[in-house]
């Protein structure tokens, strides 16, 4: 990364906008009248995962919005009484509500990890509001019923953190050791990616959000069917359980070195009924930071399809 790029990223101001439940913090790049893109990060990452992607897109004429997801960084729940909810329907709705609050028309959504999940949820449930999609791990909508059953032992071992978080011991561990857990996952999920401690530390600061532990724990307990979600969101979860197909033009990406996705996700192609292209890159889980040009080019390709 060049010194100029690093300086631009460090100086990017945090903006805020209120939706129904949240005061969402976000970074914005590019011209205000540019073609809209919303980029969504996952766990244990933050908005800076897209720093270089956003700069490339801004140079291509895009207005890029990169929110901190609920429970991360400066994003806050407006009411102390709101459930600290990490379920997929809530996070997908957050993207749509953010887009509406900013007055965006037909944004392209891009995401990985939780952000890929939330972007797929938004595209599947609100197709009229999403013009295009770039999704790491293809159709990344969580099948709650499937999650209640076992996977191969090799994958269960990779998912050790999810099992840990099912217990109160896991909550205590995340509370006390969030920095160490996040760094372990970066190393495990992106083998061969050389990042320095300063880069990780900048992201780990987002884990100090007072709602971080509650949101993360709820996310993983809900996705395993072991903790209820918000009752008002159950109709959306029922729709997601039917695996609604995604109509928006989509580029999907797999990282060949990602231990979380052994064998890749090319078999998801039937769940995309619009224009669709799947690519595999020689990298790990964190494609936006490991190969930012690839992720940005995928967004630009979808924009080209829409023009």
In summary, what is this structure?
The chain is α/β, with parallel strands linked by helices. It has helices spanning 3-10, 51-59, 88-102, 114-125, 144-147, 153-158, 160-164, 168-189, 197-204, 212-223, 234-241, 287-290, 292-306; strands at 14-18, 22-29, 35-40, 62-67, 76-77, 108-111, 132-136, 250-255, 276-281.
Q: What does the model show?
A:
The chain is α/β, with parallel strands linked by helices. Helix content is 42%, strand content 16%. The chain contains 13 helices and 9 strands. It has helices at 3-10, 51-59, 88-102, 114-125, 144-147, 153-158, 160-164, 168-189, 197-204, 212-223, 234-241, 287-290, 292-306, and strands at residues 14-18, 22-29, 35-40, 62-67, 76-77, 108-111, 132-136, 250-255, 276-281. A hairpin with a 3-residue loop joins strand 1 and strand 2 (22-29). The longest helix is centred in the middle third of the chain and has 22 residues, at 168-189.
